[in-house]
Backbone:
């Protein structure tokens, strides 16, 4: 078995940012995702955003749950703090870490299965509490690690790998984030680097709950029913002595189009995605306008991308709870145990 590793030596001519780091310093391990996966494009955008913002890697805490998307923190910011939680529980672990040490930059990476299904309750409470974090959902509408079942964000009527139509209504996590009070809400496409990198930079600089829904096509499950060249059709018409599966590489889907325009993107499985990029006249400070626009364009079969809403004066969880300015994990016995007299005063106030 061969293991690939990136060389640790850097060429002396590599450009450095103001913090003294090259772009390579923000990379992680070599990705084991399918070639052409949109998730890798998101990882590259995170790397680029952190490098351009001159963020010191050790100041970032990256957390994830379970799924293809939750593997990606291993592929960026290799010098940062990292924690891979159990399925759907990333938001509560991130909240606890944020309360303990407010000086770190918190980046939660999740998927539509991890956050819109088993972890939806965790997602709801982290957003409504205003935890100071960047919450990225890498949204492909399927459970990639378990062979492409519908996730809760799959559009009604969409076809699965086996040719089955989804009959359930989808969960729109952007609409939920807006309703729950997220103070920075955006949607983008993994293949649109020109839009995605600035959105991530804005989220990293924002104080409060920043939510990014990034549509990220799954390249592995494009052999749908009806094709005589699909794996399922061949297995049904072949006397095989064993069952094999192959993940073929696909080219990355990339787009580049101006603000205010709509582009039609054909995905690897032949389905079509229509993206509309917000123009410069759009005002992202009105939460109701954002919600109405999303619903209006959705009824026309379009996915609105860009910065949908931002509250520049937002507060975070620490301000809501009125915690001390220093990280809680630095407090000692003297601060945490004020003495019997203070405790008696507190108890008396509760009677």
Residues:
């Amino acid at each position: 078995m061969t293991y690939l590793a990136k060389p640790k030596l850097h060429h002396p001519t590599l450009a450095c940012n103001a913090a003294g780091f090259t772009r390579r310093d923000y990379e992680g391990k070599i990705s084991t995702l399918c070639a052409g996966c949109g998730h890798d494009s998101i990882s590259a955008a995170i790397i680029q955003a952190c490098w351009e913002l001159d963020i010191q890697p050790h100041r970032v805490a990256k957390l994830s749950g379970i799924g293809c998307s939750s593997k990606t923190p291993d592929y960026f910011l290799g010098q940062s703090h990292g924690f891979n939680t159990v399925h759907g529980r990333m938001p509560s672990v991130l909240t606890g870490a944020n309360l303990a040490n407010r000086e770190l930059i918190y980046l939660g990476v999740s998927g539509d299965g991890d956050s819109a299904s088993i972890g939806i309750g965790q997602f709801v409470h982290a957003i409504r509490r205003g935890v100071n974090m960047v919450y990225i959902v890498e949204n492909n509408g399927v459970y990639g690690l378990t062979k492409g079942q519908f996730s809760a964000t799959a559009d009604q009527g969409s076809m699965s790998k086996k040719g089955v139509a989804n009959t359930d209504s989808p969960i729109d996590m952007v609409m939920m984030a807006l309703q729950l009070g997220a103070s920075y809400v955006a949607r983008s496409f993994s293949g649109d680097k020109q839009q995605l990198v600035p959105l991530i930079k804005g989220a990293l600089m924002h104080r409060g709950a920043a939510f990014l829904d990034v549509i990220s096509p799954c390249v592995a499950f494009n052999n749908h029913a009806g094709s005589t060249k699909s794996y399922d059709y061949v297995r049904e018409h072949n006397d095989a002595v064993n069952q094999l599966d192959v993940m073929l590489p696909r080219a990355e889907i990339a787009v580049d189009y101006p603000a205010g325009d709509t582009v039609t993107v054909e995905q690897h499985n032949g389905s079509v995605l229509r993206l509309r990029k917000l123009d410069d006249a759009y005002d992202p400070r009105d939460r109701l306008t954002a919600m109405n626009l999303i619903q209006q364009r959705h009824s026309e079969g379009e996915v609105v991308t860009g910065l949908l809403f931002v509250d520049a004066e937002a507060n975070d969880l620490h301000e809501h709870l009125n915690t001390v300015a220093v990280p809680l994990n630095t407090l000692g016995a003297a601060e945490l145990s004020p003495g019997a007299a203070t405790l008696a005063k507190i108890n008396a106030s509760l009677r």
The radius of gyration is 22 Å. The first strand starts at residue 60 and ends at 64. The mean pLDDT is 83. The domain at 23-321 is CATH 3.40.50.970 (Rossmann fold).
